[in-house]
Amino acid sequence: MNRIAVLGVGRVGSAIARAALAVGYEVTVAASGPAEEIALLAEIVIPGARARDAADAVADADVIVLAIPLHKYRTLDPELFAGRIVVDAMNYWEPVDGELAEFRDAALGSSEVVARHLGTARVVKTLNHIGYHDLEEHARPDGSQAGSPAGAPARRALAVAGDDRAAVEAAMTLIDRLGFDPVDAGPLRNGAALEPGTAIFTGVLARDAVAEVLGSALTV
User: Fold this and answer.
1) Which pairing describes strands 63-66 and 50-51: parallel, antiparallel, or unpaired?
2) Are 83 and 122 in contact (CB under 8 A)?
3) Could you report how far apart the first and last alpha carbons of the chain are, in Å?
4) What is the 3-state secondary structure (H, E, C) of the chain?
5) Chain-centre distance of CA 167, in angstroms?
6) Rounded distance between C-alpha atoms, residue 116 and residue 122, angstroms
7) The pLDDT of residue 4 is above 80
8) Distance separating alpha carbons of residues 82 and 43, to the nearest angstrom
9) Considering only CA atoms, which of 196, 82, 204 is closest in space to residue 134?
């Protein structure tokens, strides 16, 4: 899988797109409007990415990354994402998104809410618990670990939660290729352990530490 579509060209989406380009992915980017509206931005901020309309970007992508403000998730047409691998990199931020009862009060994690809206899309939660600036600064695509080179810190880990095993594996391959250690967090409901306010969201952790923090949140 070598083609990635990033929906959203804000700071998060742009950082993800640049990081993917840096390790050899073919990247298309899209926003809510026509491709022409973001073409210049993409050329300057994400050199190498192709700006396309959302439907066209999604159509031939192997993996689709959602990096739009979460309150806009209902603008996504479920038919476009049917059967596709979708990485949910979004978070619920009440100051930005407003008070949304489906996220504030529901027992479901935010990615479960998104997955229900998207129907048959194969939703995976990851890339939401790393700052856009850290995504590029902390990446170690060469796979270097603690002690290699001597005294180097451990490679940072990112957790991946999802119900579709093939989609989880694809997302874990993406995480590894971007330069981070992927940690399988189990089913999508465990994505709640990666959301704002959790130890994983606020921490900069290596693989063993992420697995330890997940602890009892992991279910089979």
Assistant:
1) unpaired
2) yes
3) 27
4) CCEEEEECCCHHHHHHHHHHHHCCCEEEEECCCCHHHCHHHHHHHCCCCEECCHHHHHHCCCEEEECCCHHHHHHCCHHHHCCCEEEECCCCCHHHHCCCHHHHCCCCCHHHHHHHHHCCCEEEECCCCCCHHHHHHCCCCCCCCCCCCCCCCCCEEEEEEECCHHHHHHHHHHHHHHCCEEEECCCHHHHHHHCCCCHHHHCCCEHHHHHHHHHHHCCC
5) 12
6) 10
7) yes
8) 30
9) 204
Lookup: tokens for 178: 């971007």
Cα–Cα distance measured from residue 120 to residue 142, given in angstroms and rounded to the nearest whole number: 35
Place 147 in a pLDDT band, splitting at 50, 70 and 90.
Answer: very low
Helix axes 165-178, 11-22, angle to 10 degrees: 80
The strands making up 3-7's β-sheet, listed across from edge to edge, are: 50-51, 26-30, 3-7, 63-66, 85-88, 122-125, 157-162, 181-184
In single-letter form, the type of residue at position 80 comes to: L
**pLDDT tens track for 64-88:** 999 999 999 999 999 999 999 999 9
Of 184, 178, 122, 173, give the one whose Cα is nearest residue 155.
178
Threshold 0.90, pTM exceeds: yes
Which amino acid appears at position 44 of this protein?
Answer: I
Torsion angles phi and psi, residue 191, rounded to 5:
-60, -20
Q: What is the mean pLDDT of the chain?
A: 91
Q: Taking a C-beta distance cutoff of 8 angstroms, is the pair 54, 80 a contact?
A: yes
